[in-house]
């Protein structure tokens, strides 16, 4: 018997479905639930059994680090189901930190790398700007010509790229592969559209959403969390709204969500999850395995 499992990428309540003949016979599920398909019928509507008891789970520059063809990708990204397989263990190669701008991703990334330099690294970006005094090529940046960078962009060799103060910056895919070849996990704090490139067996990402505290708790959090006071220069409402919008649009890609009520506690939760991940059974996309 062929066993088929899918991860739900949307919330569903049969009581709200006018097309189901018998709502009481339907099964409710939420984004991220694992469903076992027991039969395939017309229109690919999945009668299923819920299998999620196995485990649930500085200022922004508007044109900086824009993934290629984002608008087209977002329009074609139809959220339905994703076929998955349960493995006793699976090595993730890339840690992807998603979240609203100013929620703390950069601080989390830098802390993890500083605390565990043998386990994590950040890909060195490429730039077309001239090196400053005492800057070394390949240390903080790779310095390239504008023509060279444009040629590599045309060849789809960049994950993200954009302009800032008349210079181009970008993350080249080969710099991520280099970290993997060194036996370390690459940490990326990217725009969510980059997942269209990263969600493959080659990069095997573990996607963590760093959520902003609720607006109700935000004021207290800002008063006692000096990280936010120094890092975020926008309104609390804007931070909360951006966080909510990201969750609505991309929540079906999240492997883990941590509400950043306290930056140090958030880092501890993330470290614990990463330490146990390789020894914990995981549901991963079938396309990563076969």
Automatic annotation (TrEMBL):
Segments forming domain Guanylate kinase-like: 92-275
Xref: Gene3D superfamilies: P-loop containing nucleotide triphosphate hydrolases, SH3 Domains
InterPro entries assigned: GK/Ca_channel_bsu, Guanylate_kin-like_dom, Guanylate_kinase_CS, MAGUK, P-loop_NTPase, SH3-like_dom_sf
PROSITE patterns per record: GUANYLATE_KINASE_1, GUANYLATE_KINASE_2
CDD domains referenced in this protein's UniProt entry, alphabetically: GMPK (cd00071)
Record keywords: SH3 domain
Family: Belongs to the MAGUK family.
Listed name of the protein: Guanylate kinase-like domain-containing protein
Species assigned in the record: Hyalella azteca (Amphipod)
Lineage: Eukaryota, Metazoa, Ecdysozoa, Arthropoda, Crustacea
């Amino acid at each position: 018997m062929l066993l088929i499992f899918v991860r739900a990428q949307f919330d569903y309540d049969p009581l709200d479905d006018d097309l189901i003949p018998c709502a009481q016979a339907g099964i409710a599920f939420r984004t991220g639930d694992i469903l076992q398909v027991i039969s395939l019928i017309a229109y690919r509507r999945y009668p299923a059994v819920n299998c999620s008891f196995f485990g649930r789970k500085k200022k922004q520059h508007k044109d900086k680090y824009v993934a290629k063809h984002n608008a087209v990708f977002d329009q074609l990204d139809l959220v339905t189901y994703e076929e998955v397989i349960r493995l006793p263990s699976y090595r993730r190669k890339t840690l992807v930190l998603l979240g609203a701008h100013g929620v703390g991703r950069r601080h989390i990334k830098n802390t993890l790398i500083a605390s565990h330099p043998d386990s994590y690294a950040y890909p060195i970006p490429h730039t077309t700007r001239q090196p400053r005094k005492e800057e070394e090529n390949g240390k903080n940046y790779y310095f390239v010509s504008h023509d060279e960078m444009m040629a590599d962009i045309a060849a789809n060799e960049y994950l993200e790229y954009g302009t800032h103060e008349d210079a181009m910056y970008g993350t080249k895919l080969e710099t991520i592969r280099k970290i993997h070849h060194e036996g370390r996990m690459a940490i990326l704090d990217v725009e969510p559209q980059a997942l269209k490139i990263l969600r493959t067996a080659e990069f095997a990402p573990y996607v963590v959403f760093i959520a902003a505290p609720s607006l109700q708790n935000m004021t207290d959090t800002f008063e006692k969390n000096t990280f936010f006071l120094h890092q975020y220069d926008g309104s609390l409402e804007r931070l909360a709204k951006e966080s909510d919008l990201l969750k609505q649009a991309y929540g079906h890609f999240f492997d883990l969500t941590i509400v950043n009520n306290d930056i140090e506690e958030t880092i501890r939760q993330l470290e614990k999850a990463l330490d146990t991940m390789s020894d914990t059974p995981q549901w991963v996309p079938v396309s990563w395995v076969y």
